[in-house]
Design goal:
By secondary structure, the protein is α/β, with parallel strands linked by helices. It is built from eleven helices and twelve strands. Strands 4-5-6-7-8-9-10 form a seven-stranded parallel β-sheet. It has a three-stranded antiparallel β-sheet with strand order 3-12-11. Helix 4 runs parallel beside helix 5 and helix 8 crosses helix 10. The chain is globular. It starts with 5 loop residues before the first strand and ends in an 11-residue tail after the last strand.
């Protein structure tokens, strides 16, 4: 499991009001160059009037696009952490999330599965590809011995671990356990191979890493029309923020491709923005918004989990005001 990660917190102030945003990076996955990120943030601190026009020019720094966009929304609303008022931010409605099972030894994954099921989760997402494939199948068999597909939805994320020539056989073996979907079975960038998998797979395929670095509307349309996935998974920190994620949703829905949003190991600052944005959408599926639980030094916020539901307490407190 990831032990540490880097984040930069953006703090904007105007007329006594403050807005916060987060630039969150995952080593080996985020396309941002750290040196360029720090140089760009330093320049914008000295030239704040360039904040808004600069956002659209930062396609190679998607984490800054997300951080600036959400900090400006926070500042505009003039209330701590309130970006998109809704039934969610009033505390009246939660967001169903999947329980994330981290890759590790068989016993470690077993323990996580038991804990999540005991906590009331009805949708689990398992990271696969790190241990022996037969052991992973044994884990899925164990789950299905105790919970059928009506009781528990299973998603798996291969993170591109399968070779194209082996992928369909592995998908067939996985399908024995009534899997809802598999994320990124092969590495991104192999559009033709992924298209063929989507045509023949017994398990619906979701694109995740495949979306990273796809910057123009033309390229987005080309990717979706070429591959024709069953789902796309949106990580705003990795695809350029909420407005860029909205572009993906618009294009996907036109092609009858469903979606869900996933946090990318942001602190509660970034998670809050993604959750509030997700809550104003017409969501039908459990979302991937639980990764902030892994931090031991997270920023206190109004976000909290009750079973598999993520809630926002309108009277909750933020501890980021000292930043």
């Amino acid at each position: 499991m990831l032990k540490t990660k880097d984040s930069w917190i953006i703090r904007l102030e105007l007329d006594g009001h403050v807005g916060f945003g987060e630039c969150s990076l995952i080593a080996g996955l985020s396309p941002d160059d750290v040196e360029k990120l720090e140089e760009t943030l330093g320049r914008l601190v000295d030239q704040p009037e360039q904040l808004i026009p600069e956002i659209a020019k930062m396609d190679d720094l998607p984490s800054i696009q997300f951080g600036l966009e959400t900090a400006l929304l926070d500042l505009e609303n003039k209330e701590d952490g309130l970006l998109f008022p809704s039934a969610f931010t009033s505390g009246k409605k939660g967001i169903q999330i999947n329980g994330l099972i981290w890759m590790g030894t068989k016993s470690y994954m077993f323990d996580q599965i038991k804990q999540k099921c005991n906590s009331g989760f009805t949708c689990l997402k398992l990271k696969i590809g790190a241990i022996d494939f037969d052991d992973e199948l044994a884990l899925l068999s164990y789950i299905r011995q105790h919970f059928d597909a009506n009781q528990l939805e299973l998603r798996v994320d291969a993170n591109g671990a399968f070779l194209p020539e082996h992928a369909i056989d592995k998908l067939k073996r996985l399908s024995e356990f009534q899997i809802h979907s598999i994320e990124q079975p092969i590495k991104q960038g192999q559009w033709n191979a992924m298209r063929e998998l989507c045509k023949t797979t017994p398990i619906p395929i979701a694109l995740d890493e495949e979306l990273i670095g796809i910057k123009t509307m033309e390229k987005k349309i080309s990717l979706l029309k070429t591959i024709r996935p069953h789902f796309v998974i949106l990580k705003p920190s990795l695809v350029g923020g909420l407005a860029k994620s909205d572009e993906w949703i618009l294009l996907a829905e036109k092609l009858n491709i469903d979606w869900w949003a996933t946090s990318a190991l942001e602190s509660n600052i970034g998670l809050n923005a993604i959750a509030q944005w997700t809550a104003i959408k017409n969501i039908r599926l459990p979302q991937g918004l639980g990764t902030g639980q892994i931090f031991t030094n997270n920023i206190e916020s109004p976000l909290h989990l009750d079973g598999e539901q993520l809630y926002y307490s309108p009277n909750g407190k933020w501890t980021y005001t000292t930043l």
